[in-house]
DNA sequence: GCAAAAGTGTTCTCGATACACCCATGT
DNA sequence: ACATGGGTGTATCGAGAACACTTTTGC
């Protein structure tokens, strides 16, 4: 930003924005929910045919956050419940041409994704080049995108530990078991239901409703997210959008 | 990174790299040490005369990390003990022209900085446009650099809490009181010497030497940094350089 | 001897964990 | 009735904070 060089030689450097979009597939089914993310099949030369993170070029009149949202919207047609910058990747050899990628990571509500995917399947207009993959079973991706996903996973797991962010993956109303199972899917280990309940209750991030989900067993209380909390953990940076 | 646009319209976007460089001034003096950082006075139009973070344009054949190191070297002629990417700032209106700044933050050993500054003062070749400021008494900076420094301070304070990073500001050998005073300067509050000692000892980041610093009171043991630890806290990203 | 910092020991509290136990529902 | 998950109670452990106390130096 200090412009020491009179004629900046940056013509050959382009800025891209990508996103690691997390959601949960197979919630409320018998099996365990699985952390998943959408990938885009490349249709042009560098790594043609390989899967890659959704992304695009940064427009000159577009904020970084807006570009990340646009990328996300173009891929999933959905609004994220959480969006945060991950890292700027800028190694010279990460692409045949010089590209600096500012990567974001996001959380999507599972019900919206499920509905979207089901609607596309029914209408037969599923975007041909977008596919959801389980985060634990990714193929070899284009560019350095495998490393990027690894880093995003690390951040997500970290954040799930000290913050109550997992509800960003759940519908408007959900049970504590839902929230616990999603957290378990992220962390990759089982959690004590009793202790999990108390930790969540003490965090004041959830508001109990008077509705219950009935099923095979004792009905479970439904909770909803408390929007007054979420912030204050990201420091003095303004929330995106 | 997915190059959906055939002809990317990125010609007007330039990539800059800046650095928030922290060091400690006034260590081993009677008063409390003060967290300080170098600023550069702008000599051209946007915000001419105002102080700004050291930085420069990213070269086409240069990694982001390398550009940060270069920036740092040009400002201080010193090698950092710690260097980490802070954030990519890319709001459209943060500069008259469209600039995406990838900002790093770094720690410098206080003794090296003191020696450097003293040498320049003696030789009379002090760089006219670089000056060290106390982090708590910054003037109004160019661009969005005040916000950037605030965010870097937040990250530094955070990291000091859960990691043993403060020794990156200290000379090769130092006492526990040195380390505690630096930590106090960063956090802005006093710490219990007894508890601080135990926390540091249990963290295994320090190696006791058999040397002592003698002074007005009981001699204090000198410690040095244990280089085997430091990493593993930054996730799967490779260390810079 | 005294002041002051270096360094040690002890206690208390709080949060996380483990786990025993009761509750409510469908079958 | 009983299996199963929902939900509560309780003992234990460890890290951190508070603070009393001993040690070692310069003056």
Automatic annotation (TrEMBL), chains A, B:
Domain Nudix hydrolase: 12-157
Entry protein name: NUDIX domain-containing protein
Organism: Microbacterium sediminicola
Family annotation (Gene3D superfamilies): Nucleoside Triphosphate Pyrophosphohydrolase, Winged helix-like DNA-binding domain superfamily/Winged helix DNA-binding domain
Pfam short name (any one): WHD_NrtR
InterPro entries from the UniProt entry: NUDIX_hydrolase-like_dom_sf, NUDIX_hydrolase_dom, WH-like_DNA-bd_sf, WH_DNA-bd_sf, WHD_NrtR
